[in-house]
């Protein structure tokens, strides 16, 4: 049944019961009549024991549920997606709320379909009148916890407005103090009043001890922190650990010279959301006035160390100028030579002096044997390499490995026709840092002067192959102009027998698989965005073949090339 505003209204008894069942079960197996839920707000919790994110959210939801228990007008019903009764019972025993019996798969399946559950955990909240208040219960609980009750749109709007006001009026106390805690802790276990940190520059360090990137960054941050304290700078760090394991937290924090929020403090995840955390490590800088000075200086600390202090806009502008000057002065030797390491290697370990490569176009190829996209890209790069070398001997590729061991490196490098930085060489890490390598594979083009031409050479090779050489902006513009010319005369839209449901529109696609010939396509496709359907122009334009009356037997005019069914200007 629908209400006057078009929102579905559910009869709770018929929604949750079945012909032979008028009850739900508690975590100890007791039966609870569904009619006892009349007049309560309900949360339908779609979850499963095998789902890691579900187990994590269940703990958060239990805290909220217990916090609202005194109100007496909110209940949660677990709708299981477990695979067997044993898994269901084990998981249900951890929950302080009710559940649809596992044996009633028809009701569980009906609820899944009715509320369009496409992923778990999923929480639908229904009001006392049977109206759905929200199907974004998971996000709301994570965002606002107990404060989100009674889960109405008006309450969520109010919380968002309060949050905006809090950001405008932000202070160190408003960020870190809660109604039950006005202190941070030291590694020795002492409680340190937050008031003692006011007026200082404070770094909020979001970390996860199980992440290697956090472990590596922590050692760098300790060095910066120690030096700044020795200089008498008024700078403090408060670690906000996102660990689930207390032993890991204690072990890591024990050796740190700064403060932290207590393990599992409710503020930890709240602050992660408040500062819109997207990665770890993250180091948020709070100025002496309590306002956010910078949302994340972790990368700056990694690159510049103590030089990045005090993390002000003026300091970052200064560092940017330094970086520009460094790039202008860059040479092949400056990035590839380190002390006595003034060579790369060819086959069988033969040393090739870096000086022999000066003046050439170089492609730095960051890759690893364990990386499937790297192995998939290698044949494309190899094909482009041979084609380019056939035209220009002043071109070379240098493999920079992220392999785990010498055997993997040797195995991968044996299939490459170019040079490499030796495995375990410290220059690999230095080059990754210089070019901010965040993913593999990555290819960086270095011009004859030794300056960086582009860090996007992998994409250029993937799409254009050897034609992208020498990877300059000018060459890319030339290629783009050729493709624009190629598409002249093609229809903007067409219909095709292989996809009669919708029109196909002419669109640009970097790389795709043609749903007609099942071959890889590049640049142009006739596509249906709604159905994720793509046809290569050769396949899509079959219905546009020229007939004999169109002069198919006539000699082509100068400057035109016919490729299959399509003719375009050369």
Q: Any overview of this molecule?
A:
- The protein is an alpha+beta fold and 570 residues long.
- It is 34% helix and 23% strand.
- The protein has 19 helices and 27 strands.
- The strands form eight sheets. It has a five-stranded mixed beta sheet, with helices on both faces. It has a five-stranded mixed beta sheet with strand order 12-11-10-13-14, sandwiched between helices. The chain has a five-stranded mixed beta sheet with strand order 19-18-17-20-21, with helices on both faces.
- Strand 3 (41-47), helix 2 (52-67) and strand 4 form a beta-alpha-beta unit.
- Mean pLDDT is 91; it is low at 545-570.
Task: Please state the structural category.
Answer: alpha+beta
Mean pLDDT: 91
The DSSP helix count reads 19
Characterize the largest beta sheet: strand count, sense, and whether it forms a barrel.
5 strands, mixed
> How would you sum up the global shape?
globular
User: What is the C-alpha radius of gyration, as a whole number of Å?
Assistant: 31 Å
Level of helix content? 25-40%
Say what oligomer this is. single chain
Strand order of the largest sheet: 5-4-3-6-7
Q: How many angstroms separate the termini?
A: 65 Å
Strand content: 15-25%
How many E strands? 27
Instruction: Flag low-confidence runs.
Output: 545-570
């Amino acid at each position: 049944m629908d209400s006057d505003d078009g929102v579905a209204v559910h009869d709770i008894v018929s929604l949750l019961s079945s012909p032979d069942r008028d009850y739900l079960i508690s975590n100890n197996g007791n039966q609870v009549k569904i009619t006892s839920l009349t007049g309560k707000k309900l949360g339908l919790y779609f979850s499963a024991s095998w789902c890691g994110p579900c187990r994590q959210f269940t703990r958060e939801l239990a805290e909220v549920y217990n916090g609202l228990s005194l109100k007496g007008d909110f209940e949660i019903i677990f709708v299981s997606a477990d695979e067997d009764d044993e898994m269901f019972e084990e998981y249900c025993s951890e929950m302080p709320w009710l559940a649809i019996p596992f044996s009633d798969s028809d009701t569980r399946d009906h609820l899944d379909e009715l509320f369009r559950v496409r992923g778990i955990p999923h929480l639908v909240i229904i009001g006392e009148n049977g109206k759905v208040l929200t199907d974004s219960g998971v996000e709301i609980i994570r965002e606002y916890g107990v404060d989100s009750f009674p889960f109405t749109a008006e309450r969520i709007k109010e919380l968002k407005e309060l949050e905006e006001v809090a950001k405008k009026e932000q202070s160190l106390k408003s960020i870190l103090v809660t109604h039950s805690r006005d202190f941070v802790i030291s590694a020795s276990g002492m409680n340190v009043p937050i008031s003692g940190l006011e007026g200082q520059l404070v770094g909020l360090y979001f970390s996860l001890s199980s992440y290697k990137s956090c472990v590596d960054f922590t050692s760098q941050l300790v060095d910066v922190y120690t030096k700044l304290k020795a200089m008498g700078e008024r700078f403090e760090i408060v670690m906000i650990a996102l660990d689930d394991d207390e032993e890991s937290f204690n072990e890591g924090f024990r050796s740190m010279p700064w403060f932290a929020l207590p393990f599992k403090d409710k503020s930890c995840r709240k602050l992660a959301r408040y500062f819109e955390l997207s990665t770890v490590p993250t180091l948020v800088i709070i100025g002496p006035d309590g306002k956010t000075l910078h949302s994340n200086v972790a990368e700056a600390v990694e690159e510049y160390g103590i030089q990045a202090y005090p993390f002000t806009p003026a300091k970052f502008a200064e560092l940017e100028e330094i970086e520009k000057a460094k790039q202008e002065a860059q040479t092949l030797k400056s990035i590839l030579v380190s002390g006595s390491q003034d060579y790369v290697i060819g086959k069988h370990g033969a040393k090739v002096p870096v000086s022999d490569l000066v003046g050439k176009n170089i492609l730095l190829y960051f890759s690893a044997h364990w990386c499937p996209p790297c192995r998939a890209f290698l044949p494309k790069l190899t094909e482009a390499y041979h084609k380019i070398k056939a035209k220009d001997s002043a071109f070379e590729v240098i493999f920079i490995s992220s392999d785990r061991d010498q055997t993997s490196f040797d195995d991968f490098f044996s299939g490459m026709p170019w040079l490499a930085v030796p495995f375990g060489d410290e220059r690999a890490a230095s080059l990754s840092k210089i070019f901010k390598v965040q993913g593999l594979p990555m290819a960086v083009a270095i011009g004859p002067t030794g300056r960086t031409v582009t860090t996007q050479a992998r994409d250029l090779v993937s799409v254009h192959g050897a034609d992208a050489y020498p990877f300059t902006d000018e060459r890319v513009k030339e290629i783009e102009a050729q493709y624009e010319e190629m598409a002249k005369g093609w229809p903007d839209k067409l219909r095709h027998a292989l996809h009669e449901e919708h029109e196909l529109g002419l669109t640009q696609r970097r790389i795709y698989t043609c749903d007609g010939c099942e071959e890889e396509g590049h640049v142009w496709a006739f596509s249906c965005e709604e159905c994720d359907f793509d046809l290569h122009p050769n396949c899509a334009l079959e219905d546009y073949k020229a007939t004999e009356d169109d002069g198919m037997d006539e000699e082509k005019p100068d400057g035109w090339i016919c490729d299959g069914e399509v003719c375009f200007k050369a």
